[in-house]
Amino acid sequence: MDQGLIFANEVVKARFIAPNGKVEEKIIEVRTNPITLRSSRVTLSRVSEKEKGTASLPSPPPDAARSEECPFCRPQVMTRTPRCLETLSPSGRLVRGSSLLFPNLFPYGRYSAVSLFDDNHFVEIGKASVQTYHDSLLNSADYLGRIVQCDPQAVYWAITQNHLPSAGGSLLHPHLQVHAERIPSNHHRTLLQRASQYQSTTGSRIFSDYLRREQEDGSRYIGNTGSWQWMAAFAPEGFYEIWGILPGCTSFLDLSEKDWLHLALGMIRTQKLYRSLCRNGYNFGLLVIEDGNDCLELRAVMLVRSNFAPWVRNDHTGYEVMLGDMATFVQPEETARLAREFWQ
Fold it and tell me: Sign of dihedral through CA atoms 249, 298, 43, 164?
C-alpha cells in the first residue's frame, strides 16, 4: 500500500503588467517531495532562459594540466596524503584496481576518507570509464565494512562526490568522499524517520512504493542499470536531479560487485546527460544506515551544479539558502525525456 505517498503539485499563477502594457500570467509549480515532505519550485517562465556559460561545454579549468602540484597525483600521492591506522589497514591505504583510498587530511567526521578513481589529474564530465568508478565504489565499500568492524556505532554511512569547484570540490583530481559517523546527518535522520513511520503505517517500504508509483506513471521514469531503477526526482532539490533506487536493499554489505558496477554505469550515463546539456559540475550522494533497519532502501542522487566557468551564476540563491525551497526551471518530466536516450 502507498496511501502515505502524496505526489502534490500545486500550480501558482503570478499576474502582472508587462513592460509592453499587457497583463501577463506566469506559472510556477510548487511540488512536495513525497519522501522528505520538503517543497521545491519549478519556475517555468525561466525554462527558455539561456544561462551564460551553458551554450557550450566550458573549457577545462586552468590547472587541469598541473599534475605536479596535485597531492592526489602520482608519485606525490604516496608522500602527501595520510594513512589509515593499522587497525583499518596494515599498509595504510586500500587499493582496488585503479582506486587508491586513504584518510581525508581535512576530515568532516570521525571516519572520513578519499577514494581516487582515476590516475589522470583531470577527467571531464562523462569521460571516466565505468571500471574506474566501479573500483572506487568497491574500495569505498571495503573501507566502510572495516569501519563497522572496528566501531559498530558508526552506522551512518555515505559516499559522495563534488565534481569541480562549482560543486564544492577542492581538488580537480577525480575522487569520491567516504564517510562513516556515529552522529546522523540531517538527511540520515529525516530519511530514517520517514521510512520507519511509513513502514509502520503501511507495512511496506517507502522507496519501493515510490518507485512503483513512478514506474506506473512513466513520465519521470528513465530506465534501469541492472537492479538499479532511475528516474527524475518529482520535486527536485537541484537542477536535473536524478535518482537511482535499488529496491529491497537496505545495506551496502548486501551489494554484489555487479550491483556496484550497475551503479557506476548509471552514474556515467547521468554524467553524459549533463555533458549533453553543456554542464560540467555535479554532486553525487549515496546514504545508508547500517544499523540493521529493514525500512530504508538505497537511493543514489545526482544533480547539476553551476558550471565552473567565468561569470556563471550560482545555482543556490537567497531563495534556497534563506527560504529552504529549491527553485529550478525545468520540469522533471522534461529531465526524464532528455535522459532516456542515454539508457538506450
Answer: negative
Task: Report if residue 296 sits inside a domain.
Answer: yes
Specify whether 134 is located in the same domain as 206: yes
Residue 54 covered by a domain? no
Asked if residue 280 and residue 241 are part of one domain, the reply reads: yes
Question: Distance between CA atoms of 156 and 185, rounded to whole angstroms?
Answer: 8
Dihedral sign computed on CA atoms, order 78, 80, 84, 90: positive
Which one, of 90, 259, 134, lies nearest residue 245 by Cα? 259
Mean pLDDT for the chain?
Answer: 95
- Where does residue 10 rank: exposed (0-12), middle (13-18), buried (19+ CB within 10 A)? exposed
Residue 280 covered by a domain? yes
Location of C-alpha cell 548486501:
254
Q: How far is CA 288 from the centre of its chain?
A: 13
Chain segment 248-262, per-residue pLDDT in tens: 999 999 999 999 999
Burial call 21-47: b when 16+ CB within 10 Å, e when fewer = eeeeeeebbbbbbbbeeebbbbbbeee
Q: What is the pLDDT of residues 127-157, one digit of tens each?
A: 999 999 999 999 999 999 999 999 999 999 9
C-alpha cell at 278: 553543456
Q: Tell me the per-residue pLDDT of 3-39, one tens digit each, with 9 for 90 and over.
A: 679 999 999 999 999 999 999 999 999 999 999 999 9
All residues at 6 or more sequence positions from 32 whose CB lies less than 8 Å from its CB, including other chains: 6, 7, 8, 9, 38, 39, 235
pTM (2 d.p.):
0.95
**Number of domains present in the structure of the chain:** 2
Q: Looking at the predicted structure, is the pLDDT value of residue 285 above 90?
A: yes
Print the domain residue range for 13. Answer: 9-46
Question: Do 30 and 116 reside in the same domain of the chain?
Answer: no
